[in-house]
Amino acid sequence: MEFSFNVNEVFKSPIVEITPNLIPPGYTGDRRALWDTVSKVGEVVNQMGSASAAAQGLTKAITTADRIRNSEHKLYFLIDKNANSGKGAVTGMLKTGNKSLYVFDRDGNHYQVQPPCLLDFYIHETKQRNGLGKVLFEHMLQKEGIAPVQMAIDRPSEKLLGFLNKHYSLKDPVKQMNNYVVFDDFFPKRSLPAPHEPQTQSEGIRSKIQQNPNSANGLQPVPSPMGRYGAPRPPCSMGQIIHNQSPNEQRQETTGRIASQ
Ligand code: COA
Questions:
Q1: CA distance 110 to 88
Q2: Which of 27-36, 127-136, 216-225 has the highest mean pLDDT?
Q3: Does any ligand 1 atom lie closer than 6 A to the CB of residue 128?
Q4: pLDDT higher for 258 or 34?
Q5: Residue 161 CB less than 6 A away from ligand 1
Q6: 135: Cβ below 6 Å to ligand 1?
Q7: Which ligand 1 atom sits closest to the C-alpha of 122?
Q8: What separation in Å is there between the alpha carbon of 128 and the centre of ligand 1?
Q9: Which of 76, 148, 213, 246 would give a disulfide with 94, using CB separation of 3.0 to 4.6 Å?
Q10: Is the dihedral of CA 236, 241, 245, 251 positive or negative?
Q11: Residue 200 in contact with residue 206, Cβ under 8 Å?
């Protein structure tokens, strides 16, 4: 995406990380120049956020400069220095942040977690399927010191699910009621009792929640209530509060899905 200003003067490296103050890394200049630079970064955030929303079929951008300023999220931009007659262009955007979530595994066991989340991800239409998404995603993984399976992903598109399958062999997502998805290795593996060993109910619960030290997130399972009380429940207003969603933050997407964030 091209801008009227010189992108290379604002973003000095091929991938830049933007924090809520919207000051690009390596910025030097006086106060007036800072205001100008921050407003240019804000323009990039808003334009890329709108393009990403359009690409995902959302009616409203989930990434805007105002939202970034009021968050603890991080944005990564991918820059093509040679585009636009040497003025540079912004080719990709990726947003991450930690969220407090309740997540369920396939057996209905639930966990209270604050995992790193993939909140928005966009490569310009003219540049998709050229490996640029992988370059940006890998940079983020390395900067944040995480593996893809440790992340919860907010409303992934089919393209993103294809991307995760292709590059990281992540398939068969565990879909959550809050529109996030995770993958099986996100959860600790639970050791099941040998079939011939009779167990009391409390022994059974204890062995079920034994954690595999190799689990992706070192999750603390919340011991689930048994029987029908343990079954996943439909979303409720308290659930929305827990998942950081307020009714005002929810939007109906054109696809009919509810978008938060
Ligand atoms: N249709 C289907 N799969 C696609 C795709 C498309 N138009 N574009 C990318 N993918 C998936 C495929 O698995 C593809 O592999 P393939 O070409 O061998 O089929 C793989 O991603 C390509 O990887 P890479 O080139 O590194 O990714 P990218 O630069 O295209 O970036 C996205 C991936 C998802 C960020 C990019 O496609 C995009 O911006 N899509 C629109 C916005 C979006 O859906 N964002 C996800 C937010 S939830």
A1: 46
A2: 127-136
A3: yes
A4: 34
A5: no
A6: no
A7: 39
A8: 6
A9: 76
A10: positive
A11: no
Return d(Cα 125, Cα 203) in angstroms, integer. 55
Residue with more model confidence, 26 or 198: 26
Beta bridge partner(s), residue 102:
112
Q: Facing residues of 120 across strands?
A: 95
pLDDT at residue 220 is higher than 80: no
What is the position in ligand 1's atom list of the atom closest to the CA of 155?
A: 48
133 in contact with ligand 1, CB cutoff 6 A: yes
**DSSP class of 248:** G
Cβ(220)–Cβ(112) below 8 Å: yes
Ligand 1 atom nearest to 123, measured from its CA:
39
Cα–Cα distance between 13 and 9 in angstroms, integer?
10
At 166 the three-state DSSP class reads helix
pTM, rounded to two decimals: 0.80
255 lines ligand 1 (CB under 6 A): no
The DSSP bridge pattern shows strands 174-175 and 180-182 to be: antiparallel
* Arithmetic mean of pLDDT, 69-91: 97
Query: What are 72's two structure tokens?
Result: 């603890």
**Ligand 1 atom nearest 154 alpha carbon:** 48
Tokens of 144: 């944040």
Atom 27 (ligand 1) nearest CA: 133
Q: How confident is the model at residue 29 (pLDDT cuts 50, 70, 90)?
A: confident
Q: Is the pLDDT of residue 27 over 60?
A: yes
